[in-house]
Structures are given as C-alpha cells and as structure tokens.
Specification:
By secondary structure, the chain is mainly alpha-helical. The protein has a domain of about 55 residues. About 70% of the residues lie in helices and about 0% in strands. The protein has 2 helices and no strands. Helix 1 runs antiparallel to helix 2. It is rod-shaped and about 95 Å long.
C-alpha cells in the first residue's frame, strides 16, 4: 500500500463555525450583563425601603407599620425593575442558532 502525506496545513475552520461561536459568546455576555444589572437594581429597591421603614419605626416608636409600608413599596419597585429588565431583554437582538443540538 502506498502511504499518502497528510496536508501540510490544517484546514481553517469554516466561517459558519466561527460565527456560531461568536454569537454564543455574545449572547452569553449579554445575558450575564443583564443579570448583574437587574440584581443590583433589585438589591437597592428592596433593601432601601425596608431599612428606611425600620429606621422610621425606631424613630417614631410606631411598631411595625413603617416596615410594612417599606415592604409594600419594595414589592412594587421590584416588580417594576423586573418588568423594565424584561422590556430591555426583548429589545436586544441575538440571532438564534439554527441547527444547534441541545
């Protein structure tokens, strides 16, 4: 049998493979950035009203009434943050990967 030589250079990857890898990296970067953005917003809108409510209760010696108001305000603001993040996520256009097996 005759032996054939291997090609001197390995073939370059197809442009489709590179595009898919770039799209995967771009979509995961966008997702991580949006998660961190929403998490610090949620931390602020939940913690600040509750802490203010606790301090107002201590100052006025009012029991738990201001804490409850702080919880309600925190809940409303948290829903608004999640809704705003949802709207921002829908504005981002990331091409779906066709033919990708999961």
């Amino acid at each position: 049998m005759k032996q054939t030589k291997a090609p001197k250079q390995t073939p370059s990857p197809s442009s489709k493979g590179q595009t898919r890898a770039v799209a995967d990296k771009a979509s995961s970067t966008v997702f991580v950035s949006m998660v961190f953005d929403m998490s610090w917003r949620l931390a602020i809108v939940v913690l600040v009203p509750i802490i203010v409510g606790v301090e107002l209760d201590h100052y006025f010696k009012a029991g738990y009434s201001y804490v409850i108001v702080g919880l309600v305000v925190a809940l409303i603001l948290a829903v608004l943050v999640v809704y705003r993040s949802y709207l921002e996520a829908n504005k981002v256009s990331v091409k779906p990967n066709k033919g990708r097996k999961r």
